[in-house]
Design goal:
The complex is a heterodimer of chains A (about 270) and B (about 280). With about 270 residues, chain A is mainly α. Chain A contains nine helices and no strands. Chain B is α/β, with parallel strands linked by helices. In chain B, about 35% of the residues lie in helices and about 20% in strands. Chain B contains ten helices and ten strands. In chain B, strand 9 and strand 10 form a beta hairpin. In chain B, helix 3 packs across helix 4 and helix 3 runs parallel beside helix 5. The chains are: A mainly alpha (about 270), B alpha/beta (about 280).
Chain lengths: ~270, ~280
Amino acid sequence: MLSPQSIGAATLDGLAYVGSLARLGAYATVAAFKDMFSPRRLAYGRAVHQATAVGIGALPILSLISFFIGTILALQAAYELRKFGALQFVASAVAISVSRELGPLMTAILVIGRSGSSFAAELGTMKVNEEIDAMETMALNPIRFLVAPKLFAMLLMMPCLTIWADFMGVVGGSVFGMIAAGFTFKTYIIATMDALVLRDVMTGLVKSLMFAIVITTVGCQEGLRTGLGAEEVGRSTTAAVVKAIFLVIMVDLVFTAMFYLNAGPK
Amino acid sequence: MPNAPIANSSPLSPPGPAISIRDLHVSYGEREILHGVTFDVPAGETVVILGGSGSGKSTLLRTLVGLEAPTSGDVIIREKNLQMLSPEEWRELRQHIGISFQSGALFGSMTVGENVALPLHEHTNLDPSTIEIMVRLKLNEVGLSGYEDYMPAQLSGGMKKRAAVARAMAMDPEILFFDEPSAGLDPIIAAGIDQLLLKLKEAFGITIVVVTHELASAFLIADRMVLLDKGHIVANGTPAELQASTQPRVRQFLDRVAEPELSQEIDYLQMLTGEVPRPRQ
């Protein structure tokens, strides 16, 4: 049964976990920054490799998912809009919901599944195989070598993937627009551009940067905390996915509320 | 009572043993693993730490290389007390020691050559062509010439251990630590690893600390042996001294005698309640 003490203890544990993520993120940022000015720049080359894996590798599946989400959104919007004979507003509905919310969120959830889990599994396996210990005994900083390149790659690729997901969502919506709402592709895109303001896209991009930090730190934190044995790697990977999805949605809520309050009454 | 920390000795003091361990206590949470371990590792010698499973020998090795922090006591390496080192001093010290882990711990995403080159890239200002030559030299020393471009997953168990030794040797360390170098290897490959350790000591005069429970290997390579049992040192001496020992625990380990069954009722009850019966001396 839930007691006030257990709720309090769970809250403190949660805050301590978020604190540890912030610490890891800060260390990794400092390490990445230092590495940029280091003559050796070993981690920099690893970041390029990570960026390819995180970004280019995700494009096909992200394109498909975003396209279908765009079509589904158009169908759902049209369900209500046709009652008022306002099917021409389908383009605006899709554009705003994709760019402000679903583009960044779906991208984040996909990246958690592909990369967040892979970060946890990679670091967890390295921990089990004593590779992290070996790194420490060779006076190599695991955060600089392992976490910093991943954070750098994610901060670079998440906004790019989000922009691409926004575009594919609009294309998906346009299929419905062309079939059922009398748009041509050109008029659908013009209607989309008229509906969007820069602020909508920027809102999504700011969220995507926050999601990049959350996904990287959770994946790496869970990997580095892996205990002994192969089953622990599975536990870390599951924990990384579940915690990252939860925290991404929490961060989304906070930022959506902030943007809403900041926009003020119209 | 634990001793007060020993201060780092001055540069003018005479050189002591390569490693000094004084009244070392190490715990995992509430459970104490090492109970006041004290011994020296003379420079240029091979010391083998023997002990059964759960005796604390791996914990001792991890403490010596700074992966575990002692609860109390002192570890002095190269005349520096590990408990008093700043992060910068740790970084400097770690460039003078090499560790070969039980699993090899090669970085799976890098080739064998890149594994060996990594500490050289990171800690020296050598140009890439010199590093390439040094990598070839180190791999040649461990009998792995021509394997620079192999991934660790493509190597056999013995080759992985040899590659790990080459990486540990990359910075020409003064002290090498080995965790179970023969574990999981067939007798021929294990004998090859023993020969490699002997060669390293003779050719380079390196101080070597080996943790193992393989008796044949230990007697072949050791200058001194330390026998650990449940976190206590029960014997410390040359292989001949250990062989001549009449201590029951030493004899039981060296003669490979199984633990006696819990024949007495009180022992059985203690086992059920979690109080492990004390070994009969």
